Amino acid sequence: MRRKIILFAVLGIAVFIFTSKALSGTEKKGKDDLYRQVELFSDTLAIIQTDYVDETKPKDLIYGALKGMVSSLDPHSQFMDPDTYNELKVDTEGKFGGLGIEITVKDGLLTVVTPIEDTPAWKAGIKSNDRIVKIENELTRDMTLIEAVKKMRGKPGEAVNLTILRESEKKLLEFKIIRGIIKVKDIKEARILEDGIGYIRLIEFTENTPADMNTALENLTKNNMNALILDLRYNPGGLLDVAVKVTERFVEKGKLIVSTKGRKESQNLEFIAQYPRPIIDLPMVVLVNEGSASGSEIVAGALQDYKRAIIVGIKSFGKGSVQTILPLSDGSAIRLTTSKYYTPLGREIHGKGVMPDVVVEEGKIELADKENVLKGKPQDVFEEIEKKDKEAKEDKSQEYKSDNQLMRAVDILKAIKIYKAENKTDAKKETK
User: Fold this and answer.
1) In 101-157, which residue ranges form alpha helices assigned H by DSSP?
2) Whole-angstrom Cα distance, residue 225 to residue 32?
3) What gap in Å lies between CA 102 and CA 120, rounded to an integer?
4) What is the DSSP letter of 116?
5) pLDDT digits (tens, 9 = 90+) for 215-274
6) Rounded Cα gap, residues 147 and 138, in angstroms
7) Which residues have C-beta within 8 Å of that of residue 288, sequence separation ≥ 6?
8) What H or E segment, with its residue span, contains residue 396?
9) Of 139, 196, 227, 398, which residue is most buried, by most CB within 10 angstroms?
10) How far apart are CA 401 and CA 413, in angstroms?
């Protein structure tokens, strides 16, 4: 009986042995040590099968061991059983019932990277770096990322209860959030703010982003754009190749945008700008904050290294590792960290983030309220209300002026334009 159990255990982890042999590339001594450890594993499995108080299924034991093994590597690596892996594949369709938050594990705690704008979590007041302590009254201490996501997603219209630790306020906060259909629109806003300064709010890098970015830039150029603010605040990232395509719109063709480095030669990649007609002479500011992660940090880091844009805001999140999904033979899969991102000058993003050139804390500029007293006769009240409603609609286009970071970006671009104009005037005088 024991021989049969050991044989089953060895067969059960054959895929693991094969994968380890293929990926490790160690010398014979290392392989021999691996085989000894596998024997230890099979002995333990056999003892549990024969001596544990309750009957256990070998598959459940092996899955449990794989989950523990992979999760011990880092917070982003994970073993997924077939059901979890299938859910992950469904999630890539980009439409689901959920709360609208990007999460990670930071300092061993389930942490909000950023709430996605206009989603239930955003409207409820969830913030970047909030620690999720409980989901539906269940502690998240030993919960994996995918398990947490699974608990928060579900039927739209149903409530999810979260207990949040907000360290900045030293408070435990309770949130009851109603799930909604999460549809992510990559470009939230694209318009001219003032004095020819264009503004693009990019909230995620999706397959449609490069085409949408081209359209936005073309429209702003037609409206006499002479400077640009690219707002990447609360942008959690998205597709790596799309972040590269956004960056290459603003750097010379042939320039390195980002590199990845891992243990294997095949994981060491360089992404080079290929766009044929980049915009390289337009003054730029990129806005980032603690909710800017991954793809956002690739864009900001590259433009900062080439001094192509001034980075304004506060330090970004610091999520710069690459996860690869490796399917296994029984329909399960491993999500494994295989490399890390580096900026063109070799700066590591993971755990460090991108530090702005100009640090500006978040805050609102309080605008003076207009007097809300109706004047004239009571019979004129409707005309006055219509007049005030019209003024309110006109004022809405000026709401950006209450955004402290955005207004600093506007001021910086105005200063750059003045400086360039004066230099041109001085150059003309010298030629005369």
Assistant:
1) 120-124, 145-152
2) 65
3) 13
4) P
5) 999 999 999 999 999 999 999 888 899 999 999 999 999 999 999 999 889 889 999 999
6) 12
7) 232, 233, 296, 297, 300, 311, 312, 313, 314, 315, 316, 354, 356
8) helix 381-396
9) 227
10) 15
For the chain, the domains span: 2-56, 85-183, 187-359
Residue 185 DSSP SS3: coil
Nearest-Å Rg of the Cα atoms of the chain is: 27
Name the CATH topology of 85-183. Answer: Pdz3 Domain (2.30.42)
SS3 annotation, 189-256: EEEEEECCEEEEEECCECCCHHHHHHHHHHHHHHCCCCEEEEECCCCCCECHHHHHHHHCCCCCCCCE
Q: What is the total residue count of the chain? A: 432
Reported pTM: 0.73
Scan for tokens 């609609």, then name that residue: 393
Residues contacting residue 51 through CB under 8 Å, at least 6 positions apart = none
Distance, CA of 159 to chain centre = 24
The pLDDT tens digits of the residues spanning 16-27 come to: 444 444 444 556
Q: What is the DSSP letter of 403?
A: B
The identity of residue 39, as a single letter, is E
Residues 6+ apart with CB under 8 A from 34: 17, 20, 21, 24, 26
Q: How many alpha carbons lie under 13 Å from residue 185 in its C-beta half-sphere?
A: 9
Q: Which CATH superfamily is domain 187-359 in?
A: 2-enoyl-CoA Hydratase; Chain A, domain 1 (3.90.226.10)
85-183 and 187-359: same fold? Answer: no
- The type of residue at 405 is Q
Packed helices 2-12 and 28-51: angle between N→C axes, nearest 10 degrees? 130
Compute φ and ψ for 67, nearest 5 degrees: -60, -45
